[in-house]
Amino acid sequence: MATTELTGRWLRQVPNALTVLRLVLVPVFIVLLFWQPTLWQWRLAAAIAFTVAILTDFFDGRLARKYNLISDFGKLWDPIADKVLTGAAFVSLSILGELPWWVTIVILVREWGVTWMRVAMLKYGVMAAQAGGKLKTFLQSVALILYLLKIGNAFMEWLGYLTMGAAFVLTVVTGLMCVREAMVLRSQATQPTKGDDDG
Question: Is residue 29 part of a domain?
């Protein structure tokens, strides 16, 4: 009985521990990337750190949903950890001159803007997660990994440009869809009922 209870307590902490690990890996990733950004070995190390961090997002979400381990800590910090990680990668690549700043700015404004909008809209209702949102996150992650590995590899560079382009377009499109959904949700919540119309 005690062993089962101990296992249950340990399992409940795993998703949150993975979220914390993702945050811890952000400075590790940045140091590895900027240490020797033109050397393949250091780029590979940075790509590995980023990939491990991204995978923690997949596993903590899956565990939380499968075993109903969703917590207030996870609700708050999981999306923040995701955006801090990908944001650090986008900004770092732009600082290195490998990704145009306008791409990074548009993507970050969309990501943080939608997050803020979801919080602001809670007084009207909950905005459901979009199917395209998961694909957007996946494409962003793949594009960033390809950019980290494209040093001295023409094919990887071409593939990185193509994937980043697709990720950028999907990021903008899903962002506009979120804005439209928020407007509809607000309109429905503030629309007077028939009882209110009757004088």
Answer: yes
**CA terminus-to-terminus distance, the chain:** 64
Residue at 16: amino acid letter: N
Residue 147 inside a domain? The answer is yes
The b/e string for 34-54 (b: 16+ C-beta within 10 A; e otherwise) is eeebeeeebbebbbebbbebb
DSSP alpha helix (H) spans, the chain: 2-35, 40-66, 72-95, 101-120, 131-149, 154-190, 194-197
The confidence score (pLDDT) of residue 6 equals 42
pLDDT value at residue 192:
65
For 190, other C-beta atoms within 10 Å of its C-beta total 8
Residue 41, domain extent: 2-189
| Dihedral (Cα; 43, 34, 48, 101), 10-degree rounding | -90
> DSSP character for 122?
G
Query: With contact defined as beta carbons under 8 Å apart, do 92 and 30 qualify?
Result: yes
Residue 123 lies in a domain: yes
Q: Calculate mean pLDDT across residues 113-136.
A: 76
Q: How far apart are CA 4 and CA 112, in angstroms?
A: 40
CA distance 6 to 3: 5
pTM of the model: 0.82
